[in-house]
Give the backbone structure.
Amino acid sequence: MPSPGLGFPGNRRDGARQLSIVTLIGGAALTQINHALGQVVLLLTIPLGLYWWTLYRRLSE
């Protein structure tokens, strides 16, 4: 199956793995919200995670 977009894999297992990674990175950035780099990383991971979540929901098993 071809990739649905923006570096997202075409199967649910790899998609779930990728969503887990972006969630962990966002969580780590959230713990460093008082630092400028933490704020930037958090602002990048939130829209990316939401976009990948919508792509994940469209994947079939």
